[in-house]
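Exercise 7.
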Amino acid sequence: MYSTRVLIPLGLALASGSALAHPGHETASFFSGFSHPLGGPDHLLAMLAVGLYAARQAGRQRWALPAAFVLAMLAGAGLGALGLALPAVETGIAASVLVLGLLIAFAARLPMAAAVVLVAAFALFHGHAHHAEMGDGTLAAYAVGFALATALLHGAGYLIGRWLPATPWAQRTQRAAGALIAGAGAVFLGA
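Solution. The predicted structure, written as tokens, is:
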């Protein structure tokens, strides 16, 4: 019963990215910004992974990781808006999926400062990519859209992670989800 409630939403989330998030947008708007993280499996999995990883952390780290991601992602978009390039943006995004998946798969607990820095560094790449795909329009409405979608994806991952009971079966399920996410990250790195 629990496997159905976990595997069906996970399968739907993985299948929802059939249209990649990087074809470019005609006009930047709140809705195009909102759809960008939802439209590509690389962004979708990384953002769900942040929530899943945060759900199994202690205390303030549960909220600090998603907050750091959103803030750093906005900073990455700001860097793009200023014309400052980040090297290997797509590789950084793919690496975020791989590393975050591995952290979940191995139930790793990093010190708070290290986890926040790691998550924020990955978020810079995601934000820079969001800006690069913005198209014509203003950054403000577009950024509010992708920041809100990202926060919702973090929240979904967090709720799934907290919903799972602290049983051996649930821990194996979460580790398996982390391994699947890491496998997708490895595929993205190879593509």
